[in-house]
Design a protein that fits this description.
Layout (H helix, E strand, L loop, with lengths): L6 H27 L6 E7 L10 E10 L2 E9 L6 E12 L2 E8 L5 E9 L2 E11 L11 E7 L4 H19 L1
Antiparallel strand pairs: 1-2, 1-8, 2-3, 3-4, 4-5, 5-6, 6-7, 7-8
Length: about 170
């Protein structure tokens, strides 16, 4: 027994099928071409709300990305600027929207593992195990924070260009 579809029903079915196919292709191709971007300046500010007249401290991270390779630097300061850490080096590997990083303090020699996950314009930063304990002093490194992406302009842009140059030199050595 044969079924006869009306021209109107066939056109509607064809239109729905074409729209669904177009939406699927558009969604999947943009998801495939858009890769997570860790590159840039990230920061979190630490303030003492009970003492608003005190200077805030914070943690600043500058990352450069080449494929899945990550490289960069950090600096930080305690609330009230009672200790300023000129920072150190950061390197690691991105895998999709997450990264495994190593952070090494130039001040103390301490080395730490970090897991970072991109969520929108934030980098969820979680300090992991200590790889090498600090020889001296206390390192100021974010422990469990949401770092916000910062606009690269002015002095921050110049610092990022310097970090990118340093990272490129390190990658060329390998």
């Amino acid at each position: 027994m044969a079924f006869r579809l009306s021209a109107k029903g066939t056109q509607a079915s064809l239109l729905i099928t074409l729209c669904a196919g177009l939406c699927a292709c558009t969604t999947s191709s943009s998801a495939q071409t858009k890769k997570p971007n860790f590159e840039g300046a990230w920061s979190v500010e630490w303030c003492d709300k009970s003492r608003p007249d005190t200077d805030c401290g914070g943690f600043n991270l500058d990352l450069v990305q080449s494929g899945s390779a990550l490289c960069g630097s950090y600096n930080s300061a305690r609330v009230g600027l009672t200790q300023i850490d000129e920072g150190g080096r950061v390197w690691g590997t991105a895998n999709g929207g997450s990264a495994v990083l190593t952070v090494e303090s130039e001040r103390s020699g301490g080395k730490y593992a970090v897991h970072a996950v991109l969520v929108g314009n934030q980098l969820h930063w979680k300090l992991g195990q200590t790889i090498r304990p600090a020889d001296r002093d206390i390192d100021i490194i974010a422990i469990d924070e949401k770092l916000s992406r910062r606009q690269l302009d002015g002095e921050l842009s110049a610092r990022h260009a310097e970090t990118a140059s340093d990272c490129q030199a390190q990658w060329e050595k390998k």
